[in-house]
Structure formats: C-alpha cells, structure tokens
Design brief:
alpha/beta; Rossmann fold; seven-stranded mixed beta sheet; two-stranded antiparallel ribbon
Length: 290
C-alpha cells in the first residue's frame, strides 16, 4: 500500500505542549483522515451522526459537537474510553444493532478511524470482545457497579484517560456513578462527555427504559452545579466534593427543537411559524477537568 506521511502530536495528553513527530499512515487510513467525524459516523451506522443505522432510525448529530472539541487532537496519541458500545446480548437488548450497524460497535469503529494514533477502550454490559484489534480493547462491565469498574481498570492497566464518553444505559444513577468513578482517572485537561441526558429522574414521570425515580436526572444535577456551585440532591455521585474541586468547566449542547405559531403585523402573512429551542432540554454535557 502507498504510505502517506502526516504529522502527529508526540505525546498523549490533551494538556501537553504542541511537539510533533512524523508518522506514516497506510492508504486506507489516509483516506479516512479526509473524512469528517459525521461522515465516519454515517458510514458505520452510529446514531451519533446525521443518519441512523437504517432509514427509519433517527440520529442525534452529536458528531458536530465532538468534532468542535476534538478535531485539534485528531493525530494525538490519546487514551479514550467509551461506555456503552451498542453490542447486543443476553444482559441488554441493544436495538441499534441493525442495518449498517448489524455487527454492533459502530461508534468504536468511528473513533478508531478518526483517531489513528489513539488507544481505545470500551466497556459494555454485553460481550463486545469480538471488536478487539490492535488499538481497541473491550471489557464487560456494568457502568452502575463500582466493583465492575474497578475490575475493568485493573484488567486494562490504564492509569489515566484523555477522553471519556458515556453512551451507556442513559440511566441517571448509572451516569452519575460512572462520572464520579472515571473523573478521578481523567487526565488534567481531559474531557468527559455524557450523551442522551433525559428527563428520566425523580419527579419526571417518565416511563421510558432507563427511568429511575430515586435520583434527580443527570441534566438537572449538573445544571444545578453549573448555576449554583453544588450538585442537586438526591443524586448518585460517589464523591461530589472531588468533582466540585476538579471541574474546570461544563457546557450543555443539543437542546430540543420545537415550533410555535405566532401572529405577526405583516401584510399577507399574519400567521407564521417560528422554530425555537426548548430550555433545559439539552442532550449532551461536556466537562473539562482542571
């Protein structure tokens, strides 16, 4: 194969200096380097992009958010963890395993192509070890069980992560346990992404899969800290004090879109439709560590 030479960051951390070294990429990798994260997501069938795995499956367009934060690190030697891999099994029926994602693990394949120098780790409640290759390592773990997370860290031998992506069960208690546990393993300057924040906590009255009535939903817990400096209770955070002391900033993205009818004093168009974003409906939170 024809080798193409590119430049990459020489060290693994998001917070380190911009030293560079030359690396050689084979032609398929070089071709994928020209693709945006959205293009890779759509290619592999993850709903992080703009089309789902099949025509009838919706998509979130989270990849625009990810790329805004991560494109500058594309050639860095990062250590990445993704929670929830979209692999089906006896412990959880992953409905997204269909169409272009018939084999499961679409987002891992996307990250693998987007970050050609990264080591990528994944955990899922189902067995996804068939996805393992030279830079992907998958382990079985329940993100809501600390003992499972501890066993994963011991087995993987990873001391720190640069990026953590939570696309797991979307249960608020699971999201909060995972955030507490893995934030301590996040490198200084590292980024923690939580996807699919929902109204699925105490008082929300949700009946969807992943609803929990004993803790506040994760969006509400995090927004309360963002606005008031303390996490709203009840929550499932293991060490709220550590988080309060080590969060550099957090941002919320992808609010729900709605349409309303308005009256305008304009000739020939008195009634009009206006698109707006509903408050407190954001689906993604990005947290940076000090």
């Amino acid at each position: 194969m024809t080798p193409l030479t590119h430049l990459s960051h020489a060290n693994a951390s998001l917070g380190t200096s911009n030293l560079y070294c030359s690396t050689t990429l084979t032609l398929p990798f070089a071709m994928n380097m020209t693709k945006s994260l959205t293009e890779l997501a759509n290619q592999y069938g993850t709903d992080k992009g703009t089309v789902g795995p099949v025509r009838t499956w919706g998509a979130h367009n989270y990849t625009d958010i990810y790329e805004a934060y991560l494109e500058r690190y594309r050639l860095s030697a990062l250590t990445i963890l993704e929670i929830g891999l979209g692999v089906t099994g006896d412990r959880w029926k992953a409905q997204i395993v269909t169409g272009r994602n018939a084999a499961g693990g679409a987002s891992l394949r996307m990250w693998y192509d987007y970050f050609p120098n990264a080591m990528i780790y994944g955990i899922d409640i189902n067995d996804g070890s068939y996805l393992n290759n030279d830079r992907i390592n998958v382990f079985i773990a329940d993100q809501g069980r600390v003992e499972d997370l501890e066993a994963f860290v011991k087995a993987s031998g990873v001391a720190e992560f640069d990026i953590v992506i939570d696309d797991g069960s979307h249960r608020p208690d699971h999201q909060q346990v995972s955030l507490s546990f893995f934030f301590k393993l996040l490198r200084s300057g590292g980024l923690y992404f939580i996807e699919d924040l929902r109204n699925n906590g105490i008082g929300d009255g949700a009946t969807i899969r992943g609803n929990v009535s004993r803790v506040q939903n994760t969006r509400r817990v995090l927004k309360h800290f963002f606005e008031h400096g303390a996490f709203l209770e009840p929550h499932a955070l293991l060490d709220a004090n550590y988080l309060e002391q080590h969060i550099d900033y957090m941002r919320f993205h992808v609010p729900q879109v709605a349409v309303k009818t308005v009256m305008r004093p304009i000739p020939r168009r008195i009634i009009d439709r206006v698109v707006y974003f509903q408050p407190d409906t954001e689906s993604v939170c990005v947290i940076r560590k000090k």
